[in-house]
Design goal:
The chain has helices spanning 2-15, 20-27, 31-37, 40-51, 63-71, 120-127, 175-184, 201-204, 237-240, 268-271, 293-305, 309-314, and strands at 85-96, 101-104, 129-132, 138-147, 157-164, 212-218, 222-230, 246-254, 260-267, 284-286, 329-333, 336-342, 349-357, 365-374. With 375 residues, the protein is α+β, with helices and mostly antiparallel strands. The chain has 3 domains: 2-70, Monooxygenase (Up-down Bundle); 74-148 and 221-374, no CATH class; 157-218, no CATH class. Strands 1-4-7-14-13-8 form a 6-stranded antiparallel β-sheet. The chain has a 6-stranded antiparallel β-sheet with strand order 3-2-9-12-11-10. A two-stranded antiparallel ribbon has the order 5-6. Helix 2 runs antiparallel to helix 3 (31-37) and helix 4 (40-51) runs parallel beside helix 5 (63-71). It is globular, with a radius of gyration of 23 Å.
Length: 375
């Protein structure tokens, strides 16, 4: 009996170094491993390790359920409006210790933060920021959502020349090759962007010309969405049955050229307490999906040194890239997350702030979205 307990302890430690898929495979080996892997402490360790967050005070579901919800690739459009979605780029996990957060469309914050009791719609229209209260505390997951493109139409796409015909796909190219080449020359679209529904050879002529090769970018569709949700959201019955819906907090229309599309979520406590901005509890890194080169190394060095915190997210020069770098970037710390995309010449942006509450208007905020549309 003592040896069996010893073996269980050894395998419990081994399991701490396995990811979710390997844990599932180990549990299928035999009944003994299945019982071992069913221990919730193993999944708790794996979940906190992979999200790089401290344990919350309380969770309403098992850690195995939370791990699956966080890492099985699920996103908001898995449960509704699937036709409006292409893919999600996960950023990572962050923690809210208090129920008040600042939502912003820019990373240069006003000297005086909006009052929690103020009108969020008015502060969004005036400053592009608002304070959201009664937010559910605990672990949150952040990502960017790539919206689906509608079938080609001149109303939904803006066409511009980018290179000579010599670099264009031939007239006999398959739709897949045409789409891949177009995507290559369209920095505003994520690499994972799939062709819109119904994209066939009949549509290829829209991005071909005898003299020029054209590229496109979203004109009237959503270009960038920062999506954040409580780790338990997808397990809640109210969300799964559709009774919880997103509500508009406010809309800010910027009718002038915009250099960037930015969205950020910050825990108010760490914006108003300077001593916490760089303490040894800070946790800072660039999402591996978005970082590369010197910025990624700089973020890794900052994380290793234990500095940065919320202030690290606001240090925009260290991570948003050069103006000619149009790839989306994201920065994450323990109590904040932000995304940024440098834009090509445009006529302005419309920024929408949305929140989902549990159990009606007085419920806790369980999901937040900040989305930008090109005007």
């Amino acid at each position: 009996e003592k040896n069996k307990r010893y073996e269980a302890d050894i395998w419990t430690e081994v399991a701490k170094y396995l990811d979710g898929k390997d844990l599932a495979r180990l549990g299928m080996t035999n009944r003994w491993f299945h019982r071992l892997i069913m221990e919730d402490s193993i999944w708790k360790y794996a979940c906190l390790r992979d999200l790089q967050v401290p344990p919350p005070r309380h969770v309403s579901f098992t850690w195995k359920q939370l791990y699956k919800s966080a890492f099985d690739g699920s996103h908001a459009y898995c449960f509704r409006q699937q036709e409006k979605h292409i893919g999600e780029q996960p950023i990572g996990g962050f923690v809210l210790e208090t129920p008040s957060v600042l939502l912003t469309e820019k990373l240069v914050l006003p000297k005086k933060l909006p009052k929690p009791e103020g009108n969020p719609e008015r502060t969004i229209q005036t400053f592009g920021t608002c304070v959201l209260t009664n937010v559910r505390t605990g672990i949150w997951l952040a990502g960017t959502i790539s919206p689906a493109l509608h079938p080609f139409s001149f109303q939904g796409l803006r066409i511009r020349t980018i290179c000579s015909w010599s670099d264009a796909p031939s007239a006999t190219s398959t739709p897949a090759k045409v789409w891949d080449r177009a995507k290559k020359h369209t920095p505003i679209l994520p690499v994972s962007t799939k062709a819109p529904p119904g994209f066939t050879s009949n549509h290829c002529d829209l991005i071909r010309s005898p003299f020029f090769y054209y590229y496109f970018f979203l004109h009237a569709g959503t270009m960038q969405v920062l999506d954040a949700r409580h780790v338990e959201l997808f397990l809640e019955e109210g969300y799964r049955n559709g009774s919880w819906e997103y509500e508009d907090i406010g809309i800010h229309r910027i009718e002038k050229p915009s250099d960037t599309a930015t969205g950020g979520i910050f825990e108010i406590k760490y914006l108003t307490s300077p001593c916490t901005a760089g303490n040894h509890h800070s946790h800072l890194y660039l999402s591996p999906i978005f970082c590369n080169g010197r910025n990624g190394k700089r973020a890794a060095a900052a994380a290793a040194a234990g500095v940065g915190g919320v202030i690290g997210v606001l240090d925009v020069k260290s991570w948003i890239g050069q103006p000619s770098d149009w790839q989306p970037k994201a920065r994450l710390c323990l109590h904040a997350v932000a995304v940024n995309t440098n834009l090509q010449p445009n006529e302005g942006l419309q920024v929408k702030f949305q929140a989902m509450r549990s159990r009606g208007a007085d419920g806790e905020v369980v999901s937040i979205r900040i989305s930008q549309q090109l005007i």
